[in-house]
User: Fold this.
Amino acid sequence: MSFEHLYENFHFIKTLPKAELHVHLEGTLEPEMMFELAQRNRVTLPYKTHRETIQAYQFSNLQSFLDLYYQGTNVLLKKQDFYDLTYAYLKRAHADGVCHAEVFFDPQAHTGRGVDFETVFEGTYTALEQAKKDFKMSSYLIMCFLRHLPESDAIATLKQAIPYKKYIKAVGLDSTEIGNPIQKFNRVFNMALEQGFLTVAHAGEEGSHQNIWDALNMIQASRVDHGVRCLDDDLLVAELVEKQIPLTVCPVSNVKLKVFNDYATHNIKEMFQKGVCVTINSDDPAYFRAYIAENYALCQKYLDFTNHDLVQIAKNSFAASFLPEVEKQKNYDKLLEFSQEQYTNNGLPGSYRVKEQEIIKVL
Assistant:
């Protein structure tokens, strides 16, 4: 059942112009596509049907998710596979009002299986270019290093990426946060900065607020992915607010991975009220069964974000992007036009009703 049947306000949320800044392409691999690619590439899966696969998506923490996540990547072998995966996400994001996407990809998850870096990159980038034509949707690639692997592996990956650096906007750091501090990757990030890459990092998700400081101070992170532990340090919050350093928050992911017990106790509303530049994103939507519009909708339902608040968060998403200022302004104008149309034609939708039992079926 879709959210259209649950929320009177969902059309507003889906059509609200927005950017998505925290989504892993490998995390958009829907079970149906997983089985399609497995058959195409003659890969054996541990599940008999895609429904059985979905039933396995019950996570106790980040690591329990990552075990399934990396297992799913085994079906991605050819350029066409990466093209199909990327294009399917972009088509879905476009339907959710995403005008600009900055997407993570994990080369090490594939090169470690014998898939060439070129295969991963070309399949992915070709889909991004096609989406620009089909959906008028801008996009950037962010190459992530896997923090559970040694830095030497990350350095080898960075060297593989150098020939493609004009097509890759930034480098990031993902995978297991606990036990893999940012300082483990100082050298590779310094090398990346010297090559002209921007930097981001997952920090303060399961790990402490100190990891956020380390991302800012050690690798010059332009923005922080997740960052929900920032509220444990008033000085850090003040720093984030003063410098408007963005956080790419993923509410459904945080609940699914037990960072928060439920949506009502998530701290994104408190961060927003304190003036932190928060954005709403989907992270790994195929595994968490919720894309960006559902993340917006659940924040409104359980944390009482008004439509005005959501417009501000959408504006934050463009401000936090790596787009040039002239392109940011075009998106601000698009957002302003959308808001004016809502007021003029309908009045901004107000409260809405949710069928509580039905939402349980969806999530």
